[in-house]
Structures are given as structure tokens and as C-alpha cells.
Design a protein that fits this description.
heterotrimer, A: alpha/beta, Elongation Factor Tu (Ef-tu), domain 3, Rossmann fold, 7 helices, globular, C: alpha/beta
Chain lengths: ~280, ~350, ~325
């Protein structure tokens, strides 16, 4: 399933220096950063595919593995969306446009966008889980004719916690045969749309397992529920796609931190299908 | 190259010659403990040791090493890479430790080749020494390692009493021997013939563990209750992982020296530490000692086989000797065979 | 099987049968003839795993800290030195006294695994061990061996302060009437007499060997902070880098954190894989505290607490 190729990179633990060109405040806790590399040629040859991650760092603070939320079809920059949860992400949240950031990558495998061609996409995401799949969504929508109907089901706890509001409200729904379904966990004065969790009934109003590939991304609890939902809808284990998240340090399959069974999430993942997940020891 | 021999009383001279054009790393006694250390000459190098307490993996994958330095006030954030190592000879590695280097090669020399490791690896010539005796904790034979063979080393010495048999195993080894060819005599075959007898005690007296079927059993023992029982006595220190010649987990940390100048280093880390897998945000896939103890043995005896095709243990016995609570990998293996 | 083992098993079985405790923490046979390993017994049938012999070197009290939320009461087997750890834990409010049932065993000294391994084949299984004066007869599946106790005794046992546990709800075995031989700190005085340069040379060569395994910290009944300062990254008090400077800071800081609280059980020395004489640091501070505050070794009595954390009118005030 993994369509990545082994990448021979000189000094894989050495970062490239990049500049933050644009910062978008997605919500109270999450900002998106558009960056370009200072050294010419790096960005053009970066070669990131949908689903890849980059190891970001602030020199003096530390490193963290972050999904690249921009699709490779959108050239000229890389985009990352980062929530403030720990020491590094707090330091990143204090960056201003024009500040420096160090990046190495691209790491990890990618969404099986080749296998998905000619099929419908059913994407279910929760909270900041929309970030890792965003690169896949934009890749598919930028190659619109290669893919069938695209349904994006997106839920968050509150209106404020919805990420990528411009994409979900203004950009994606305007694209041919692309449907965005949004729900909030509980009533919210800013929202007069659907309230409640993402349910099988709701999903089946628009989608079926026929010629469709399902993808889910979000908090671990949500992923567990969605994987079961996909199985009930009749999807095959090899077609059900999700991402696993573990604490990562080196990003290149050596330091052992993200080791589960015989896999390293940083090189063999983070994208997995359900058949692969079922072979892993349940330690993620 | 044909086998050679060297008289025992010439070994110091040989080491002196090696030290002239290489950094020489050899076993010495420090406060009564045998350790591999850089030395200026053959003086002080011990030959009557069984094994060093800390494995020589330290010279390929150090407990900590600087990666690069930076100056945050520099607007371009230019980083300065740490220097590499000089050409070196590692003298005195035992066959178990030589095998461990081959196992580490599988980790560091694969998909994303690790330059920090490879710089040291490529610049080091390994002179191994066969084992005539073994410690009560040795069991290299369990993993197909022979006390008299050292595939992966460049030269292999075997103690034959008054002299050493000298076998060049690689071109690098041949080049090294050329530096002191005057100290070497051609072996007329008697040296090689005596080798088997010389290493026989190490083969016979070590712990005999049969690994047949252990991996297959472990494949189905993830939820076995033995991990909960065995892990109770673990105190969660890093002794086993830090004396282990094949352990390779590490952390990457930025260190700010005073104001704005600092460096990024990597240092050995241990899957036995409670916070190893804990993520910012609180996600902790191995919350208790049970999961962490299980991870250690599964990784060495099952996952490493699945990923790299070989057991991750070389039977050196350091962990079981030093574990403060007698968590003994040999005992665990026997228990797996019994209850798995 | 010796009488003490027999009585130990009976005591443990009764405690479990009567449901007075949920678990008995004790010693079981180890993987080699002259080792034991901590065992955690939860059913009366399993008490046959408990043993008492000359190789019961581990201190088991630290496990009480890990298990403090375990339902019911916990029984733990202690020797004299370990028993001071019980009061360390209760004085530090780590675990309430009434959650612990102490099974005390009078001890005339334990034997060192390292010393024995240099004198005999330790690789078999233990059949029996008997002490007759200075002779220790160790019968194993690899043969019978006689060693001189004085040559293989754990170093710390030469200066034993409490042959009999300072606390015990049940005492298994006969009390030892031989006078204890507490430390007169001659060894410490030897180091005190060194010049600063000599001290630095000695200690830095020890700290250079440290591999930061934290075995010393993890086995210590005085080290029970929920988040250890050496694990904290915010702020980064002691770096993870393993070099002599960071290692020195680790050892000295830990010694100071234990000053006035260390019960001198000697486990830190035993567990160190690199043979660093960690206990000397703690002993030095213990000597200072004893001289300044005229106190007993911490953990010797139930009342008390960290001498540095309390104020008494009698405290010395020569600096005022």
C-alpha cells in the first residue's frame, strides 16, 4: 500500500533553514504557517507527497513532527498547521511573519493517492485531524478529473475549534462534485447547522461503499469509532485508510521512539490501512 | 591473505605502531573496570580481560554526541556541523560485540543513511579477538555467533598461548597488517589448527540456550500474563539498555550554552524510561512497566527479527549481569519456551 | 530449607489467607545460584516461592512507592538496613504506615554476587546454603563450594547499624544479639583529608563513568518525587547529555536532595553498573548531619522527618 520510495538523503538529521512568510490564525489554538526555504533549490526538490510530514524545529527549543498540510500541487511554499500543546509548539505559536524555522523532511509514507484514482473519496475528520488529510483533499481537488465524488465529513467540539474555515465554508464546497458536511458536538450560538457526532446514518445519506475509499483522521477515540463505522458500511480492511500518531524524535526510523512491533511510524507510516493496523501490537 | 601469527610479546609493539597513524581504541583498566578507551600506545592495554563493561558500540553510536552548533542571534540561523572522527582502530572487540556492530549497521545504514554513525563506522578498522574463555553470563552461541569467528571485523586475533593467530578478514584488515608486517610470521597451518582447541572452552562453558521456536511463540504472546509478572520487579532504570551492545534508541535535544549559542546533540535514551513514549498532549501508549518490559524483550527477540531478519541480542550477558533485580533475558527466553 | 524460610512462608501464607494483605513482596530464587529476585506473591499457594538465604541483597521498600495505590495492604520483607526505608516512606508521606505489614528478618550480613562470581561457578541453581562461622557452604547444581564469608560479604555489611529491623509487624527468625558495628566514618575522613585537587580528580573520574541509567535513583526509597527534577525539561535543570559535567551535577544534586533523609541502605552502590561509590557522597552528608544535628541515621525511628525540613530550638546556629 505504501507508495513511497526509499529516499537517500545526505545527513538526514540536519535541518534546512526556512522563513515563515504567512501566518493564518485558524482558531484560538491553531495557526497555519506558510514557509519557504532560504536555500534555493530545496523547495523545488523537496518532493513531498500528500500525507508526508516534516520535522520542524526552533533552534534552542527542539524538534517536532508535523504534517504538511499543503498539497504538492500548490507550489512555492509548504504549509503546516500547528496547535499549541507543548514546549515546541508554544515556541512556534510565538513566531511572526519573517521569522526563521528549521525543517527537515519530507518524512513518512503518503496517502495512496494513485490507488484512489477513479474512485470516490469519503473523508471523515475531527478537530485538528483535518490537517493531515488536507494535503490529500487538495491533491485530489487539484487533479479533479482523476477522482470521483468527494465527501468531507468534519466535526469539532465547538464552532471556534473548526479549522480551515476558509476551505470548509468557502473553497471546497464550490468545487465540482465536492461536498462538505459539518457538524458540532454540542449547540453553539455561532452555528445553526447540524449538531451531534458523525454517525453511520448521516454518512450513508450521501455515500456508500461502492467504488469509494474511506479515510479518517482525528483524535484516537474518534478514529476507533470511524474504523468500526467503515467496516459496518462494508469497506474492505485494505481500503480503510487512517493515520497513526506516536511521539517521534528522529523521523528516520532509528531512534526507536515511534516503534510499534516491527514498524516505525515515521517511515512505515503515519498512513496505514486497517489491515496493516490489525497486524500491529495494540500499542498506539 | 594467508594467515599470520604474532608473538605475544610483540603485541604491544604492534599497538604502538598502530597508534602512530591511527587513533587507537583499546581495552584498559579504569578503577578495576575494563573499558574501551582511546590510548596513546600499547602501554596499559589489557589482554587478559573477558569483555569490557561498556560495549564498543559507544565508538560508533556514542552515548552522546554533538550534531551541530548554532547561534540564534545569527539572522540566517546558519548551523555548523560537528567534526567527524579521525581514522581509528578498535582493538580487542569480542565476536559478540562485532556482531552487534553488524546489527547496528542494519539500523543506521538503511533508508536514510545516518552520517554520524557512518562517518565513525567507515573510519574504523576493527581488530577482534576470539574468546578462549567466557563469563558465566555468556550465551553467544544461542544466536549463531561463534567465539572464534568475527564476520564484520577486519582482523581477527586468536590467543594460542605464546602467540596470536592473525587472520585478515577484509581488505581494510590487510592494509592495517601491512603497517607491521615485520612483526608477523606466516602461519604454517599449525596456528589455524590450534584455533579450534583454543576457543573450545568458550563454546562449551557458556550458557546453552536453544532459540528454536522462541520467535514463533513470541508472535502470539503479546497479551501473555508473564509480562505482568516479570515486569513487577523492574525498577525502570536504563541499565540494560545502556550496557547493551545492540540498543540504539536515542533522543535529540537542543542545548543553549549561556545566551544564544548552543548545539543540538543526540544522546542514548531508553525505552525502559517511563517518559520515553509519552507525547506532548498526554498520549502514552506504554503507561506501565508491563508494557515497557514487554517491549524490551519483544523488540530484541521478535520485532528485530521481523524487520531486520536477525535477533537483536548477541548473548553478551551484560544486561543480565548488571540488572539490579535479576531480570535475566536468558531466564525470560526459557520461560517463553515453557509457557508460550 | 532453612527454618527462617519455612516460617517466612507460613507467615506470608497466613497473611494472604486471612486477607490481611493483598500482596507479599519478598525474595525468590534468582536465575543464578547466588542471586535472588524480588517476587510479588498474591496467593497463599505461591508463598512457596519465598526464600530467605545469604543472597537476599535487594532492598524491597521502594516497591511500596510504586504500589501505593494498590488495593488493600502490602506486606514487605525487610532486613535491618532496608527497614529504615519503611520509615523514610512513611515520614515522607508516600504511603501510610497502616497500609504496610512489615515482615522483618534479622540479618547477619549478605553476600556479594560480584565477589562470589570471582570465586565460584555461580551459574547453577541453588540447592542449599549454610553458614558455619566464617565458612559458607553453597550447594548448587554445578557443585558445592565453600567460601570465606569475610571475603565475599557485601562491603556495607562490615559497618552494619541494625542487624535487626527497626520496625516489624512480624519477625521471622531469631534476633541477632551481636553488637552492630556502625560506621565510624573512617573512610569518609580519608576523603575529607584529600586536597581539593585530589578530590576533584577522584570524583570526576568516577562521574565520567556514569551512564545515567538512574538505577541509583530508582532503587532509592528516598527518591520518590512524582516528577523527578532530572526528567523535567521545563526548565532543563540537568541536561540529558552524558558528559562528566552533567553527570557531576546529577550526582551532587541527588546527594543534596537526600541530605538528612538518606537511610544509608547502600542499595545505590550495589545497583550501579559502573561501580561508582555513590554511597560515599550520601555518607559524607550523613556524617555532616549527624555532627550538626546530633541525630540518628534517618529511618531508625518512626517519628521524625527530614532534619533539614524541620526547625528545632536546639539546631546549631554557629553562623549567627
Amino acid at each position: 500500500m505504501c507508495e513511497c520510495k526509499t529516499r537517500e538523503v545526505a545527513s538526514p538529521l540536519l535541518p534546512h533553514i526556512a522563513t515563515v512568510n504567512k501566518i493564518i490564525q485558524e482558531n484560538e489554538n491553531i495557526r497555519s504557517y506558510q514557509v519557504t526555504f532560504d536555500e534555493p533549490g530545496i523547495l523545488e526538490n523537496f518532493g513531498n507527497l500528500p500525507g508526508n510530514c516534516g520535522m520542524l524545529s526552533i533552534l534552542g527549543v527542539g524538534e517536532g513532527m508535523i504534517s504538511i498540510t499543503s498539497s504538492p500541487t500548490r507550489k512555492g511554499m509548504l504549509e503546516f498547521s500547528i496547535a499549541k500543546v507543548g514546549r515546541l509548539t508554544t515556541a512556534i505559536s510565538e513566531l511572526n511573519e519573517g521569522d526563521k524555522i528549521a525543517i527537515r523532511g519530507p518524512y513518512g509514507n503518503n496517502f495512496p493517492f494513485e490507488m484512489m484514482k477513479g474512485k470516490n473519496l469519503l473523508i471523515i475528520a475531527g478537530g485538528i485531524g483535518l490537517a493531515p488529510v488536507r494535503s490529500l483533499i487538495d491533491y485530489a481537488l487539484d487533479n479533479r478529473d482523476d477522482y470521483g465524488r468527494v465527501d468531507i465529513f468534519y466535526g469539532a467540539r465547538t464552532y471556534d475549534l473548526l479549522t480551515f474555515k476558509y476551505d470548509i465554508f468557502d473553497r471546497w464546497p464550490k468545487i465540482k462534485d465536492t461536498h462538505v458536511h459539518i457538524t458540532l458536538d454540542a449547540p453553539d450560538p455561532k452555528w445553526d447547522g447540524r449538531i451531534g457526532f458523525i454517525t453511520q446514518d448521516w454518512v450513508e445519506e450521501s455515500c456508500s461503499a461502492e467504488n469509494t475509499i474511506p479515510v479518517t483522521c482525528g483524535p484516537p477515540v474518534m478514529i476507533n469509532i470511524m474504523l468500526k463505522l467503515f467496516k459496518k458500511m462494508g469497506f474492505k480492511d485494505e481500503d480503510i485508510i487512517t493515520t497513526l500518531e506516536m511521539n517521534m524524535r528522529c523521523g528516520v526510523g532509528k531512534c526507536g521512539r515511534c516503534n510499534i512491533g516491527d514498524r516505525y511510524i515515521c517511515v512505515d507510516g503515519p498512513v496505514f490501512n486497517l489491515a496493516q493496523i490489525q497486524k500491529l501490537p495494540p500499542e498506539y | 591473505m594467508a594467515d599470520k601469527t604474532i608473538k605475544k610479546d610483540q603485541v604491544k609493539t604492534m599497538l604502538n605502531k598502530i597508534a602512530q597513524s591511527n587513533q587507537l581504541i583499546a581495552p584498559i583498566q579504569v578503577d578495576g573496570i575494563t573499558l574501551f578507551k582511546p590510548v596513546q600506545s600499547g602501554e596499559g592495554v589489557v589482554l587478559d580481560y573477558q569483555n569490557a563493561l561498556v560495549p564498543p558500540k559507544d565508538y560508533f553510536f556514542p552515548q552522546s554526541e554533538k550534531m551541530f552548533s548554532y547561534d540564534i542571534t545569527d539572522p540566517s540561523w546558519a548551523i555548523k556541523l560537528a567534526e567527524g572522527v579521525p581514522n581509528r582502530v578498535l582493538f580487542g572487540a569480542r565476536p559478540c560485540d562485532v556482531k552487534s556492530i553488524l546489527l547496528l549497521d542494519k539500523v543506521f545504514d538503511a533508508e536514510f543513511r545516518d552520517d554520524f554513525y557512518l562517518d565513525k563506522r567507515n573510519k574504523t578498522t576493527v581488530v577482534a579477538i576470539s574468546c578462549n574463555e567466557c563469563r558465566h553470563t555468556c550465551f553467544c552461541g544461542a544466536f549463531g555467533i561463534s567465539p572464534g569467528e568475527a564476520e564484520g571485523a577486519d582482523v581477527l586475533l586468536t590467543d594460542l598461548g605464546d602467540k596470536y593467530l592473525v587472520e585478515a578478514l577484509t581488505d581494510k584488515g590487510v592494509s592495517l597488517l601491512a603497517n607491521f608486517s615485520d612483526l608477523l610470521t606466516d602461519d604454517d597451518g599449525s596456528g589455524k589448527a590450534a584455533k579450534e582447541k583454543a576457543v573450545a572452552p568458550a563454546k562449551d562453558k557458556q550458557m546453552k540456550i536453544d532459540m528454536e521456536g522462541v520467535k514463533a511463540k513470541l508472535d502470539n504472546m503479546f497479551d501473555h500474563p508473564m509480562w505482568a509478572t516479570e515486569s513487577m520487579r523492574c525498577i525502570g532504570c536504563g541499565t540494560c539498555t545502556f550496557v547493551c551492545p545492540t540498543c540504539h534508541c536515542f533522543d535529540i535535544v537542543d542545548f543553549n550554552n549561556q545566551s544564544s549559542v548552543g548545539y543540538r546533540y543526540r544522546c542514548a535514551d531508553s525505552c525502559q524510561f517511563a517518559n520515553f513514549t509519552r507525547a506532548a498532549g498526554g498520549h502514552q501508549p506504554r503507561p506501565s512497566k508491563k508494557e515497557r518490559t514487554r517491549q524490551r524483550f519483544m523488540h530484541k527477540l521478535r520485532y528485530f527479527v521481523d524487520r531486520y531478519g536477525d535477533f537483536g541480542c548477541v548473548g553478551c550477558g551484560r544486561c543480565l549481569e548488571k540488572c539490579p533485580v535479576n531480570l535475566d533475558i536468558a531466564q525470560i527466553i526459557n520461560k517463553v519456551k515453557e509457557v508460550g | 530449607m532453612n527454618k527462617v524460610t519455612e516460617n517466612l512462608r507460613k507467615t506470608a501464607a497466613k497473611l494472604l489467607q486471612d486477607k490481611e494483605v493483598e500482596m507479599v513482596i519478598g525474595y525468590g530464587l534468582g536465575s543464578e545460584a547466588v542471586r535472588t529476585q524480588p517476587v510479588f506473591i498474591t496467593s497463599p499457594e505461591d508463598t512457596e516461592k519465598l526464600v530467605w538465604n545469604s543472597f537476599c541483597v535487594n532492598g524491597l521498600t521502594k516497591y511500596l512507592s510504586d504500589l501505593k495505590t494498590h488495593p488493600g495492604k502490602l506486606a514487605v520483607v525487610v532486613k535491618g538496613c532496608d527497614s529504615r526505608g519503611i520509615f523514610r516512606l512513611t515520614q515522607d508521606n508516600i504511603i501510610p504506615r497502616d497500609k504496610i505489614v512489615v515482615i522483618g528478618i534479622p540479618c547477619a550480613g549478605q553476600l556479594s554476587y560480584t565477589k562470589l562470581a570471582s570465586k565460584m561457578d555461580v551459574s547453577g541453581q541453588l540447592n542449599d546454603v549454610e553458614e558455619k562461622g566464617d565458612d559458607v557452604v553453597i550447594k548448587t547444581t554445578k557443585g558445592d563450594f565453600t567460601v570465606k564469608k569475610s571475603e565475599v560479604l557485601l562491603d556495607k555489611c562490615n559497618t552494619c547499624e541494625h542487624h535487626n529491623p527497626v520496625v516489624a509487624d512480624h519477625v521471622v527468625g531469631d534476633a541477632i544479639n551481636a553488637s552492630p558495628t556502625p560506621d565510624s566514618y573512617d573512610e569518609i575522613k580519608k576523603y575529607e583529608a584529600m586536597s581539593t585537587e585530589e578530590k576533584a580528580k577522584f570524583w570526576l573520574s568516577q562521574f565520567e563513568r556514569c551512564i545515567r541509567c538512574y538505577a541509583c535513583r530508582n532503587i532509592c526509597p528516598g527518591c520518590t518525587c512524582r516528577e523527578c527534577i532530572f526528567d523535567a525539561i521545563k526548565p532543563d535543570w540537568v541536561g540529558k547529555e552524558i558528559d562528566v559535567s552533567e553527570n557531576e551535577l546529577f550526582h551532587l544534586t541527588r546527594a543534596f536532595h537526600l541530605a538528612g533523609r538518606c537511610v544509608d541502605c547502600g542499595e545505590c552502590d550495589r545497583v550501579c553498573p559502573m561501580d561508582i561509590p555513590i554511597r560515599l557522597l550520601n555518607k559524607k552528608l550523613l556524617k555532616e548531619c549527624k555532627e550538626l544535628f546530633n541525630m540518628e541515621t534517618p529511618g531508625s525511628v518512626e517519628e521524625g522527618g527530614s532534619v533539614i525540613g524541620q526547625y528545632r530550638l536546639e539546631d546549631p546556629e554557629e553562623f549567627m
